[in-house]
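Researcher: Next entry in the queue.
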Amino acid sequence: MPVKPLLLASSSRYRHELLARLGLPFSSASPDIDESPIAGEPPVDLALRLAESKARALAPMYPDHWIIGSDQVAALPDGTRLSKPGNYQNAYEQLARSSGQSVIFLTGLALLDASSGTLQTHCEQFTAHFRDLSAEEIDAYLRKEAPYDCAGSFKMEGLGITLFRELQGRDPNSLIGLPLIALTDMLTRWDRNPLLEP
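Model: Structure for this entry, 198 residues:
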């Protein structure tokens, strides 16, 4: 398969910083999609559908690109979804609910060849086991880091690490929003190995 330019279907600075780690040239654009879940849709299906939708939404504008779409769904053991909180109050409530719980993060990944429609998808699961957090700890964390644009109300790459007693999963990058191990696998299948780039 001929190598094509890479496009990240995201305006997220976190995903941009992650993809830059692979050392491959890429551009980025923000897809316009409806991210509402479908009634009864399992979290895995939602994460994969949104990742694919983001990639497909940009295909008409970037027909000669390989487009990377990614989306993350976080859920408590009872199935309650955790979204981007947007403000202090919502973030406080999310972290209070997560305290002492094991939160599952499902990160959907799609790599689309816009010209042929060929698609690879993967869902990376990562479990964050939260410590029992006091009200003072939650308040202090939120005031120091203000993670209001992050699913689950924490920044893994910052002080968020202090909230956990254990992390389980293959790729900690997926917690930030882009599973680089799975993406490297996908690119290598299409003869684009980041290690062998000139």
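Model: The chain has one domain: 6-196.
Researcher: Noted, moving on.
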